[in-house]
Amino acid sequence: MRVAISVQALTLVAVLAPAAAFAQNPAQPLPAAPPAAPQTDYSQVQIKATKIGDNFYALEGSGGMIGAQVGPDGVFMVDSQFAPLTDKIVAAIKQLSDKPIRFMVNTHVHPDHTGGNENLGKLGVTLMSRPQLRTRLAARPVPPVELATITYDSKISLHMNGEEIQLIPVVTAHTDGDTMIYFPKNNVIMTGDFYRSIQYPYPDRANGGSFKGLIDGLNAVINLAGPATKIVPGHGPVVTKAEVAAHRDAALAVQEKVAALVKQGKTADEIVAAKVTAETDAKIQQPGTTGERFVRALVTELTAR
After folding, report:
1. How far apart are CA 92 and CA 113, in angstroms?
2. By residue range, what is the domain housing residue 211?
3. Could you report the per-residue pLDDT of 130-148, keeping only the tens digit for each?
């Protein structure tokens, strides 16, 4: 197997020296994340794999989207969903490749994207993440095998299965540990939850997210993608850059209205009652209650300034 990690902008840190990485990339430890919804019957969840590139698949189950790039060097995986689904996920990947899973990178810290980390670590998979994400998981605490053994805080590349896989940090967006992953040969970008093609965006301030970082991340996707690039969101259907741009514009429109009302001294409840998302709801798939959550996050961020 030939797997090379480029030295381009390399701040890659093995866990042999985690203290130095954390000192350079501090994060605010938080209490344990809430467990997966208890009503979910994981025995009934089916894993669906969809081929969207020459050797790239998107896998759906319960939680965030999973990516799998396969080939003679093994499998490169993005995100792990919930722990009870690991066996099903591994079985689904074995239908795509008879090679082992070599690497798995987390797009962000939330448990529907990191819940299977421990299981994969025990299988010998090398885990990768931003140091901020690793610090937040370690603060819960969790078994060491659940934590990344490779961290990075600048763009890095892995060369695997004839493709340069690019791991690109997205700073303080959905969380403070976001990564988007670009597969240039397959013409695929995975975003994690700083872009979801359903519902309103959400800057998770409790985990270091911000509206500005979220917009910066969406702009980075739009700038990187070509017209035919397939963008795999954290949740929802695969889209093109046109849908990402529309999502960004809707978010900016709501933020402008919220900012004007905050300037007038309106409270979060008053701003929600003003129905500032009414004009954009039709542009968002499954808006539900996520518009209110987005508005309240905006009010908190704007008033904090």
Report:
1. 17
2. 4-15+46-240
3. 999 999 999 999 999 999 9
